[in-house]
């Protein structure tokens, strides 16, 4: 595998597109801070009588498994920076907005955030907050900037923190590379083939109908 090698975590049977879940956030708060805590974050709006930053179910359920890799006796570095969209970091998350009262309630949903790091630098959170459209999805964890040769043994150390068992979900770890055409995506390939084939079939069908039953001209009754 030639560098860069992208490390993804994949979740199955996790509906980030559920209406109540996807609406449980405050984009104004992510950008400007405490003064914008509002009812849109319900039910994770306040904890112990104090507002929560970032509020809402999406942030509360932050994925928090960790992965480390070794090749022989040497560690294989995973770069965790620049894994989120630059536009998100610069325009959607405040550089002077810090986590406050986060995951301090009696029920912990997922990962915790460093209260000394602004939200614009919390890239795990930024990646997670971009909700997926399907119940099976991948999100970028990091990038390995070294080649992996054939027949090499790579040892993966996984810290299993995230609870997917309670809702019958599955977790996977994916290592993949990318070409100038992008990464591998079977769904898009099948979708393009089906859409293109259907379009060709319909074009031929309408052409045959037009030849056999041409549209009449000059009769206002057909308008």
Give a brief rundown of this model.
With 223 residues, this protein is an alpha+beta fold. The protein has six helices and eight strands.
Descriptive report:
This protein is α+β, with helices and mostly antiparallel strands and 223 residues long. The protein has 2 domains: 5-179, no CATH class; 187-222. The protein has helices at 19-23, 27-32, 57-60, 86-91, 123-129, 186-212, and strands at residues 5-12, 46-47, 50-51, 66-71, 74-76, 137-144, 154-159, 170-176. The strands form 3 sheets. A 3-stranded antiparallel sheet has the order 6-1-8. A hairpin with a 2-residue loop joins β4 (66-71) and β5. The N and C termini lie far apart (63 Å). The mean pLDDT is 89.
Show the helix and strand layout.
Layout: E1 5-12, H1 19-23, H2 27-32, E2 46-47, E3 50-51, H3 57-60, E4 66-71, E5 74-76, H4 86-91, H5 123-129, E6 137-144, E7 154-159, E8 170-176, H6 186-212
Antiparallel strand pairs: 1-6, 1-8, 2-3, 4-5, 4-7
Strand order across the largest sheet: 6-1-8
- The stretches of 5 or more residues where confidence is low (pLDDT under 50) are none
User: Could you tell me the number of beta strands?
Assistant: 8
Task: Report the portion of residues in β strands.
Answer: 15-25%
Radius of gyration: 24 Å
Helical fraction equals 10-25%
Largest sheet: 3 strands, antiparallel
Average pLDDT for all residues: 89
Q: How many structural domains in the coordinates?
A: 2
Give the SSE order as H and E letters.
EHHEEHEEHHEEEH
Overall shape: extended
InterPro entries: CDC50/LEM3_fam
Main location: membrane
Protein name: ALA-interacting subunit
Family: Belongs to the CDC50/LEM3 family.
């Amino acid at each position: 595998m030639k560098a860069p090698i992208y490390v993804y975590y994949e979740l199955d049977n996790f509906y980030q597109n559920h209406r109540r879940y996807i609406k449980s956030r405050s984009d104004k708060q992510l950008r400007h801070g405490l003064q914008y805590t509002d009812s849109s974050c319900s039910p994770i709006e306040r904890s112990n009588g104090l507002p929560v930053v970032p509020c809402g179910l999406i942030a509360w359920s932050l994925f928090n498994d960790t992965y480390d890799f070794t090749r022989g006796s040497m560690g294989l570095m995973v770069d965790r920076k620049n894994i989120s969209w630059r536009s998100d970091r610069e325009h959607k998350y405040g550089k002077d907005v810090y986590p406050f009262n986060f995951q301090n309630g009696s029920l912990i949903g997922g990962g915790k955030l460093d209260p000394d790091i602004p939200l614009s630098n919390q890239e795990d959170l930024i990646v997670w907050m971009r909700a997926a459209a399907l119940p099976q999805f991948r999100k970028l964890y990091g990038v390995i900037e070294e080649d992996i040769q054939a027949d090499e043994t790579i040892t993966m150390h996984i810290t299993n923190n995230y609870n997917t068992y309670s809702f019958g979900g599955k977790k996977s770890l994916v290592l993949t590379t990318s070409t100038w055409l992008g990464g591998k995506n079977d769904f898009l390939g099948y979708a393009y083939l089906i859409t293109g084939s259907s379009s060709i079939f319909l074009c031929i069908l309408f052409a045959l109908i037009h030849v056999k039953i041409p549209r009449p001209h000059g009769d206002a009754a057909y308008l």
